[in-house]
Write a structure and sequence with these properties.
binds magnesium ion, DHBP synthase, 11 helices, 11-stranded mixed β-sheet, 2 domains, alpha/beta, Rossmann fold, globular
Length: 351
């Protein structure tokens, strides 16, 4: 494995590797991806082995632009075109009925495929040079914290991939919004930087949230989208909808701000090593506590979230205490990730 600067030569080499069925780590604006030629089932199979990901979990196919859609999707509703025009390149994945040619290993054998055009100059240069779809999940081992730098990818999968293109830290920092347009009602399967209101403004109707109801106008974060997988067996599967995901190995607890300091000090007094991810509460300067304050602004908080969790996980504390978040829509994607991180935390990795 090598982390390489994304020179034209490195991009050309990455294209050669993809054509040869190898895996390439690539930056996107959301998180780093683990890429393979989406039309090559053997290459895509290597992604599952490298990540330790269950074989029935479908992958997102990254495209150079919306013009490539007809090769992958058998039906492209007007709403998909409107959303692609509005948000691509960008952090929105559309679930559409698949073309027959798309390998089963990409779609998890489902009748749909997830598609997006990432907003990152290195990803776009690679996709344009490759001139086809790159299947890429987040470049972490299954269930663990998504990588937002090339170094994170190397830590997660360095021994398992041919090359990592270094595109610097990801600007958004959390995974794309996933919108299912394959059925009558548009439905958000995973919240992200593009919210319900952004989508409604383009298509003129409000998507449902998976596991929730049609959100109200205005404050629409309330029905926290599915902490458990929805029971609808016809619904597409989303691995990010497992209750436990995005998880550090240190147990992670969400604590209301008014109890944060007391809880931290109590645990430290019992001899525990305590890390704190605060939002508004500034560092009290207690030498027993490792205290990070991520700040009150959701875009910046999302940008730093996974790097902060990784840094706190690395100090091998007994607990990570996270200051709980507002219930407004601009925090819903972060609330979703932290809720799943809390459920999956503290387990040792077996893959
Ligand atoms: O921002 C992102 O989306 C990042 C970057 C690399 O593009 N990718 C990412 O991939 O988060 P991954 O594999 O970690 O998560 C993709 C999610 C999974 O939860 C998967 O189940 C869902 O997309 N997905 C993919 N195809 C689907 C389909 N046909 N139906 C339903 N869900 C699908
Ligand atoms: Mg992932």
């Amino acid at each position: 494995m090598s982390i390489v600067s994304p020179t034209p030569e490195a991009i050309a080499r990455a294209v050669e590797l993809l054509r040869a069925g190898e895996l390439v780590g690539l930056p996107t604006e959301t998180v780093y991806g683990l890429g393979a030629d989406a039309m090559d089932p053997v290459a895509v199979g290597r992604i599952f082995t490298a990540k330790g990901r269950p074989a029935d979990h479908p992958l997102i196919v990254h495209l150079p632009d919306a013009e490539h859609l007809p090769r992958w999707a058998s039906r492209i509703p007007k709403e998909a075109i409107a959303l692609a025009n509005a948000f691509w390149p960008g952090p929105l994945t559309l679930i559409l009925p698949r073309e027959d040619e798309v390998p089963d290993v990409v779609t998890g054998g489902q009748a749909t495929v997830g598609l997006r055009v990432p907003d990152h100059p290195v990803a776009l240069a690679l996709l344009k040079a490759f001139d086809s779809g790159i299947a890429a999940p987040s470049a972490n081992r299954f269930g663990r914290i998504s990588p937002t730098t090339a170094d994170h990818v190397a830590q997660e999968l360095g021994d398992r991939i041919a090359m990592i293109l270094d595109g610097g830290p990801c600007t958004v920092g959390i995974e794309s919004t996933i919108l299912d347009l394959s059925r009558d009602e548009p439905e958000i399967l995973r919240p992200g930087a593009i919210g319900v209101d952004d989508i409604a403004a383009v298509i003129g109707r409000r998507p449902r949230l998976r596991g929730g109801q049609v959100p109200d106008t205005g404050n629409n974060a309330a029905p926290s989208p599915d902490v458990a997988p929805a029971g609808d067996s016809a619904a597409p599967r989303v691995s990010g909808s497992l209750a436990a995901h995005y998880a550090p190995t240190t147990p992670l607890l969400l604590i209301a701000v008014e109890h944060l300091f007391d809880e931290a000090v109590t645990l430290a007094g019992e001899g525990s090593r305590v890390a704190v991810l605060a939002r508004t509460a500034s560092d009290p300067g207690d030498p027993r506590l490792t205290w990070l304050c991520a700040g009150p602004q959701p875009t910046a908080y999302a940008h730093d979230l996974y790097a902060n969790l990784r840094a706190l996980d690395a100090i091998a504390a007994d607990f990570i205490l996270v200051e709980s978040l507002p219930t407004t829509p601009d925090w819903s994607a972060i609330t979703d990730r932290l809720g799943r991180a809390a459920v999956g935390s503290g387990e040792t990795d077996e893959t």
